[in-house]
Write a structure and sequence with these properties.
Layout: H1 8-19, H2 25-32, H3 36-48, E1 68-76, H4 81-93, E2 97-102, E3 109-115, H5 118-127, E4 135-142
Length: 161
């Protein structure tokens, strides 16, 4: 999809939807200063161009029985495209991995893994991560607490894009 300029109305729509994606078109239109039909068209265009990727329910990690967050720094044996792709494809299949970033610096990937307890992480490590070929080292850090977590992006208010 081609890139689309985001104007002030789009920013208001995006901010409102990030705050509450269950708003009706009428409510959204009121917040953006539009009538419902143009509002619905703009939202549809934001979806079609991929600016809005989807809608989800944000769950409480602890309440659903996954209180443990582990950050794993992964170093691969080689950083060739095939190895990077193979690692990324494997990680994409593992539901325990909720975030995965290709990194610069001494490590190649940073993963956030959520599990129910230490034993579950050990199983994940032994049954999945260490069995994946090409992994040179794994460094795990356990989160003691969460200071901030956000699903809201800071929509730029500067020049039109």
């Amino acid at each position: 999809m081609p890139k689309r300029a985001i104007d002030a109305i789009d920013r208001r729509l995006l901010a409102a939807l990030q705050e509450d994606a269950r708003l009706t078109v009428q409510q959204l239109a009121e917040r953006a200063g539009l009538s419902p039909s143009p509002c619905a068209r703009r939202v549809r265009l934001l979806e079609e161009t991929g600016i809005i990727k989807g809608y989800v329910a944000v769950l409480d990690q602890v309440a659903v029985g996954l209180p443990v967050s582990v950050f794993a720094s992964i170093k691969l044996e080689r950083q060739r495209e095939e190895e990077l792709d193979r690692f990324a494809q494997a990680v994409a299949r593992w539901p325990e991995v909720v975030d995965c970033y290709l990194m610069t610096g001494q490590r190649d990937y940073l993963l956030r893994i959520v599990v129910e307890d230490l034993e579950a992480y050990e199983r994940f490590l032994k049954d999945k991560l260490t069995r994946l070929g090409g992994v040179a080292s794994i460094e795990s850090s356990f989160a003691l607490g969460q200071v901030k977590r956000s699903n809201t992006l800071p929509i730029p208010h500067g020049a039109e894009r």
